[in-house]
Amino acid sequence: TPPALCPPPSAFAQITVSDTGKGVHPDFLPHVFERFRQADSSITRSHGGLGLGLAIVRHMVELHGGTVQADSLGEGQGATFTVRLPLLQDVREMAIDPLPTSEELSSDEPPRLEGLRVLVVDDESDARELVTTVLRSQGAEVAIACSVSEALRQITEFQPQVMVSDIGMPLEDGYSLMRRVRSLAIECGGRIPAVALTAYAREEDRRRALMVGFQSHVAKPVNPIELVMVVASLAGRTGGS
Q1: What is the overall mean pLDDT for the chain?
Q2: d(Cα 234, Cα 140) in Å, to the nearest integer?
Q3: Looking at the chain, which terminus has fewer C-beta neighbours within 10 angstroms, N or C?
Q4: d(Cα 132, Cα 141) in Å, to the nearest integer?
Q5: What's the CA angle centered on 180, arms 177 and 184, to 5 degrees?
Q6: What is the pLDDT of residues 78-122, one digit of tens each?
Q7: What angle separates helix 148-158 from helix 174-182, to the nearest 10 degrees?
């Protein structure tokens, strides 16, 4: 007997998460799972994020054959998110892809970054941790900053050779940071090579980043090898050394 296209209710697991926070305006509720959609879309707002989190949630839930729904009585009245996932009938039915063998992996090794001082600027702790881990794994010395003011202090104290900066940050964004950096004297870090690592990935975003002084513009989520290659290129390092 072929499997049912829509499993009965008993074949689903339901997870409900509720909060008493900011809530969602009724006009925005139909759009909460859309990519890059936010009630406050300014890149200097006090709350971080780029409007991708809930879009990723919906994508992941749907990949598993489930659904996700958001409900809210309005602003200031909290929100409820309900995830329904089909139950796994038999774990032996799962198709598990084998790990690639060493022969299947690319033989090209990303360049090493030993001794290279890199400043990572991002207000999101998870993003900072990911970039830091990738760069340190290739030998780089990494300092972090979560704001423009902290980044400027690190440029003076840490004297980085490359800067990797987010664009959307509260109070002052990455564009403002780059303009302030480029106004510094050369001996104070005013010509530090910099890459904008951001989810603002439209062509106009790339042009704006380059116009304010970034040498490169890389869209999130970034491939770790691509990140290492870009940083190595900005530092004048090529090849596997």
Answers
A1: 81
A2: 13
A3: N
A4: 9
A5: 135
A6: 899 999 888 765 434 444 444 444 444 344 677 899 999 999 999
A7: 40
